[in-house]
Amino acid sequence: MLERLGIRLSVGWRDGLISGGVLFAAAAVTGLAVYLTASSALKNEVRTNLMRVAVSAAQLTDTTTHARITRPEDQGNADYEHVRAPYFALLRGNPDLAYIYTMVRVDGKTHFIMDASIPKPGETVVPTGVMETYENSTPALEQAFATQTPQVEADTYTDKWGTFLSGYAPLMDKGRFVGLVGVDIRVDAYLKRLEGIRNAFLTGLGVAALAAIAAGLIVGRHRNAAVRVRQENAARSQQLQAMEHDRLRAEHEALQAEASRRAAMSDAAAAFEQTACRILDRVKQSVSGLHERAADVSEIAIRTREGVETAATATRNTQERARHVSEAAQALSLAISDIAERSARSNAIAHEAAHRSVDAAAKLDSLSARSAQITDIIGLIDDVASQINLLALNATIESARAGDAGKGFAVVASEVKTLSGRVAEATRRITTQVQDIQSATSETVASVGAIRSIIEDMGRTAQDVAQAVEAQTGLTARIGETIEQAAEDAQAVGCTLQRVHRSADETDQTAACVSVESAHLAEETARLSSAVETFLLAVRAA
C-alpha cells in the first residue's frame, strides 16, 4: 500500500512498522478486553447491590400496616410514615440510591402506594401519590409481578422521574404475595464510574501507541543492520553454493555410474535366481516323488509279506485239515450205517411231532379268541371309567356352587375322580398286556405252523438221507484219495511262499535305503537353495 502511495521503505523500517502495529494491536485488544470485563463487573456489582437492597427493604416492610394504606388521603398519616421509616435508613446507608417505593397490582394495572427519597443538593423530588397508576411498566417489573421473585433491570430506563436502574423484591404477608418493593439507583453515579473505566482504557491506548512507536523505531534500526549483514552473507553464500554445486554434480555423475553397475549386477542376479530356482524346484519335485515312490514300494512290500505270511499259515492249516479229513473219512464210513438206522427212527418221530403240532395250533387259536373277548371287556371298563370321571367333574362343579356346604362332597368327588383315573390307567395297562398276549399268541401260532412244516421236511429229509447214505459209501473212499493229493500240493505251495517272503524282505530293505537317500538329497537341495540366496544377497549388496 505504501508503494502505491509512492513511499518506499527499507526492509528494516518495514519490519519496525509491522512490529509497532502488532504491539499496538495486542495492547488495544488487551485493553478492550479489560474495559469490557470491568464494565460487566461494574454492572453486575450494581445489579447485585440493587437486588440485596430490594430484598432488605422487603424484609423491613410491615406488610400488615402496608395493607391498610389504600386511599390517596392515607398519604402522610401515621401508618404511611411508619411503613416507610426503614426505607430512609437504607437510603442513608446507600447514598447512590434515589428512591425506595412500593407497588401493587389491581385490575391488571400497577399502582404506587408510597415512596421514600433523600434528595441531594440541587435535586427536585416529585413524590408519588397513594394508588397513583404507573404507566411505564418495564419487562423486568412485569416479570417480578408474574413470578413473585426478585428481579433487576437489565439496562437503564427513563420515566417522568428521571433515568434509573431499578431492582424489585416481592412483599409477602404470611406467605401471601401482596406487592413489590422497588429500589432506584441514580444513573449519574453509575455512568461516572463507567466514564472512569473508559478514560483508563483510552489512556492505556495512548501509552500503547507511544510504546509501539518506540518499539518500531528500535526494531527498524536493528533490522536495517541485520539486513546489511545478511546481504554480505548472501554474497559469500552464493560463492559457496557455486562450489557446492560443482561438488554435487561430480558426486551425482559418480552415483549414476555406480547405479548403472548395480543395475547390471542386479539384472544378472535376477536371471541367475530365476534359473537356479527353476532347477531347484525341479530337483525338489523329483526328490519328493522319489520319496513318495519309495514309501509306496515299502508299503507294497509290507503288504506282500503280510499276504505271504497269511498264505503260509493257511497252507499249514490246509495240510493239518487234510490229515484230519482223511481220518474223518475213515470214521465216516463207519458212521454211515449208523446214520441209516437213525434216519428211520427220525422219520417216525417227525410224524408224531407233526400230529402234536396240529393240536397245539388249535389250542392257540382258542387262546387268541378269548384274548379278543378280554379286549372288548376292557373297552367297556374304560368307557365306565370315563363316565365316572365326567360325573366326578360335574360333582366338583356343583360342590363349588354349593360353597361351604359342598366341601365334603367335593372331597368325595375328588377321590372318585382319582379312582376313575387309576381305573383308566389300569385299563390301559391291561389293554397293553392283552395286546402283547395276542401278539405273542399270533407269533406262537405262526411258529407252530413253521415247526410243523420243518418236522415234515425233516421226515422227508430222513428218507433222502437214507437213500444218500448208500451213495456216500463209494464217495468216501474217493475223498480220502483226493485229500492226500491236496496235502502234497499244499506242501509245495508252502515252499514257494517262503521264497516270496524273502523277496518281499529284500524289496522293503531296498525301499528304505531309497527313502534315506532321498531325504539326504532333500537336505542337500535345501543347503544349495540357501547358498544361492546368500550369493544373490551378496551380489545385490555389492
TrEMBL record:
Per its UniProt entry, which superkingdom is the organism in? Bacteria
Q: Name one GO biological process term.
A: chemotaxis
Q: State a single Gene Ontology molecular function.
A: transmembrane signaling receptor activity
Extract the InterPro entries matched here: Chemotax_Me-accpt_rcpt (IPR004090), MCPsignal_dom (IPR004089), T_SNARE_dom (IPR000727)
- How does the record classify its membrane topology? Multi-pass membrane protein
Query: Under which name does UniProt file this protein?
Result: Methyl-accepting chemotaxis sensory transducer
Instruction: Name the PANTHER family on file.
Output: LYSOZYME-LIKE PROTEIN-RELATED, METHYL-ACCEPTING CHEMOTAXIS PROTEIN MCPB
